[in-house]
Design brief:
Elements lengths: L6 E7 L5 H15 L6 E7 L11 H9 L13 H6 L2 E4 L2 H11 L8 E4 L19 H21 L2
Parallel strand pairs: 1-2, 1-3, 3-4
Length: 158
């Protein structure tokens, strides 16, 4: 279990192979660069079971490599424990949000604040669209959105 004073954030999307591992990797690098990574528990998860056990999408991995952002993750589904142990659960779109709110309902000791990651975007792009059926530039756009949102989220929690 994380130590006292530890902040925690779980990034969530549908499959946990495109958007949320990118957000997780970007946030981890920002926290590392800011010298505060040891104050954070950082992870990502899926609302669905589609990709459990799989690595991040190769296009997302290539995008992170281009930006010098290390990414190591194995897709998993969000658990009941996540709602009780994470301070923030930040998701990518309205569908993720309604899935998470539905999954959180039966949880007795709900701790997590469930929000759209895009609610932190200074450019007010609320939704981070799934690039899975898109092209490399769609992954690039996800990276840019995640970078803006994660920077603002980190600043609001420092």
């Amino acid at each position: 279990m994380a130590g006292a004073g530890t902040k925690s954030v779980l990034f969530v999307c549908l499959g946990n192979i495109c958007r949320s591992p990118i957000a997780e990797a970007v946030f981890r690098k920002m926290a590392t660069d800011a010298g505060v990574v040891d104050q954070w528990r950082i992870d990502s998860a899926a609302t669905s079971t589609y990709e459990i056990g799989n690595p991040p999408d190769h296009r997302g991995q290539a995008c992170m490599e281009r930006h010098g952002v290390p990414m190591r993750h194995v897709a998993r589904q969000v658990t009941k424990d996540d709602f009780m142990s994470f301070e923030y659960i930040l998701c990518m779109d309205e569908s993720n949000l309604s899935d998470l709110n539905r999954k959180a309902k039966p949880v007795k000791n709900l701790r997590a604040k469930i929000e759209l990651l895009g609610s932190y975007d200074p450019e007010k792009q609320l939704i981070i669209n799934d690039p899975y059926y898109g092209r490399d530039e769609d992954f690039e756009k996800v990276h840019q959105q995640c970078a803006r949102c994660c920077r603002a989220f980190l600043e609001s929690n420092s």
